[in-house]
Design a protein that fits this description.
The chain is an all-alpha fold. About 65% of the residues lie in helices and about 0% in strands. Helix 4 packs antiparallel against helix 8, helix 6 packs across helix 7 and helix 6 runs antiparallel to helix 10. The radius of gyration is 16 Å and the shape is globular. Bound molecules: nickel (II) ion.
C-alpha cells in the first residue's frame, strides 16, 4: 500500500469514528477492517501472525540500516527521533501484551501504570498520553529502548502463537474486550507499527509524532 493511500485511509478512519491514531485497539480496527478489507486476514491466525512477523522484520531492517546517531537524534517535542517512535510503539504495545497475557491466563488485563488522570481508551486523552510517553522515555538510552521494544514484540508473537485460534477469533470470548475478538489486538498493533513505518520511509510524510 502506498503511503498516500494509507494516509487517506487514516483520515477516513479519523473522520468516521473519531478514533485516535495511537490507541491500541478496540474502536479503531473495526473501521480498518472495513476500509482495507482485512476480512480474510482477520479470520486466520497464521495470516495475522505472518503479517506481524513481516512488520517486525521491516522495522528490524530499517533500524539495522541506521547508526545510533541517526536513530537517537536530534529530537524535539514536535519532531520525534526514531528512538522516540520506537519507545512510543513499545509503550502502546505493553497494553496490547497485557491483553494477550490476560487471555492466556484467563483473567482481567493488568495494564502498565500510566497517569491515573488519563484514560488510554479515550481519544480525548491520547495526545496527553503520547506526550507523557515521550517525556517518560526521552532520556532512555537507545540500547534499552530497542531491547524493550524487541523483546516485547517477540513476547507478543509468542502469545499470539500460544492462544488457540478459536479463542482469538471468538467475538464473545473475553468480556473485557467489549464484543471484539482478541485478533483485533494483534491486527491493531501490526497496523500501528505499519503506520509509523510508512511515515519514516522515503515517500512518507515524516509525520511521525502521532
Ligand atoms: Ni502512534
Amino acid at each position: 500500500m502506498l503511503p498516500g493511500q494509507l494516509h487517506k485511509i487514516r483520515s477516513a478512519i479519523a473522520s468516521t469514528c473519531n478514533a485516535a491514531l495511537c490507541l491500541d485497539g478496540l474502536e479503531l480496527v473495526c473501521h480498518i477492517q472495513e476500509l482495507i478489507n482485512w476480512g480474510t486476514l482477520m479470520n486466520d491466525k497464521q495470516q495475522i501472525l505472518t503479517a506481524l512477523r513481516e512488520e517486525f522484520n521491516r522495522w528490524e531492517a530499517l533500524l539495522a540500516s541506521m547508526s545510533e546517531t541517526q536513530i537517537a537524534g536530534p529530537s524535539s517535542p514536535t519532531n520525534w527521533s526514531i528512538k522516540d517512535v520506537v519507545a512510543h510503539l513499545r509503550a502502546w504495545q505493553q497494553r496490547s501484551i497485557a491483553r494477550m497475557e490476560a487471555a492466556l491466563h484467563n483473567r482481567e488485563p493488568e495494564f502498565p501504570r500510566w497517569p491515573e488522570t488519563l484514560n488510554p481508551d479515550s481519544e480525548d486523552d491520547t495526545d496527553q498520553i503520547n506526550a507523557w510517553i515521550y517525556e517518560t522515555n526521552r532520556e532512555k538510552p537507545w540500547p534499552s529502548v530497542y531491547r524493550d521494544w524487541r523483546e516485547g514484540f517477540q513476547r507478543f508473537l509468542e502469545l499470539g502463537e500460544a492462544i488457540p485460534e478459536k479463542d482469538l477469533l471468538d467475538v464473545g470470548r473475553y468480556p473485557w474486550l467489549a464484543g471484539r475478538p482478541l485478533s483485533f489486538i494483534l491486527v491493531a498493533s501490526c497496523e500501528h507499527h505499519q503506520e509509523h513505518l510508512e511515515w519514516l520511509l522515503p515517500g512518507g510524510s515524516m509525520k511521525i509524532a502521532e
